[in-house]
Amino acid sequence: MVQSLGRLISILYRKNQGYLNDALAPHDLTASEQAVLMYLYKHNEISQEEIAHYLQLDKASITRTLQSLINKEFVTKKKDTLDKRCNVVSITIKGEAIKQTIVEKLQDWNQFLLEDFDEEQQQFIYDSLLEIVEKVEKHEGEKNGRK
To answer: Where is the HTH marR-type domain (predicted)?
Structure first.
């Protein structure tokens, strides 16, 4: 029997998105929007391009997600003072106020996923997935002429 790691990761991703969409719906947020907010909590006042790169999203997807967050008043976007071609994204007070709720929902999901594993197993799962991601990113970099 051939086992498909990609299929399992895809299933987990879809279940994660569904959980977050349901858990954050009362707060008028989606899973895609929370990913952007989580990045901004660590790197506020950052370019739209940097967010897209980190989240591995194309420009159109990040533009739509940011426009939704702007409309909901969770973030603002303005032209970079040094490079007018770039947009700088910042969290608003309303966006900052939802941070603890988002963190709690993410912690609840992680706890659910890992509750049957001891700490050593949990670390192994995390380390293994991180190694896989790094391998794929290295391969993509080499394929695109970067090392």
So the answer is: 1-138
Asked if residue 2 has pLDDT above 70, the reply is no
Contacts by 128-134, CB closer than 8 A, 24 or more apart: 132/5
Question: How wide is the angle at C-alpha 40 spanned by C-alphas 139 and 87, nearest 5°?
Answer: 85
- The token pair that represents 144 in the structure block: 């695109």
pTM here is: 0.84
- Reply yes or no on domain 5-97 having CATH 1.10.10.10: yes
For the chain, give every domain's residue range. 5-97
Using alpha carbons, select from 111, 82, 96 the residue that is nearest to residue 42.
Answer: 96
Q: What are 38-42's contacts with CB under 8 Å, separation 24+?
A: 38/102, 38/106, 40/75, 40/89, 40/90, 40/91, 40/95, 41/91, 41/96, 41/99
Encode pLDDT of 19-43 as tens digits: 999 999 999 999 999 999 999 999 9
Pick from 94, 70, 2, 78: nearest CA to 45:
78
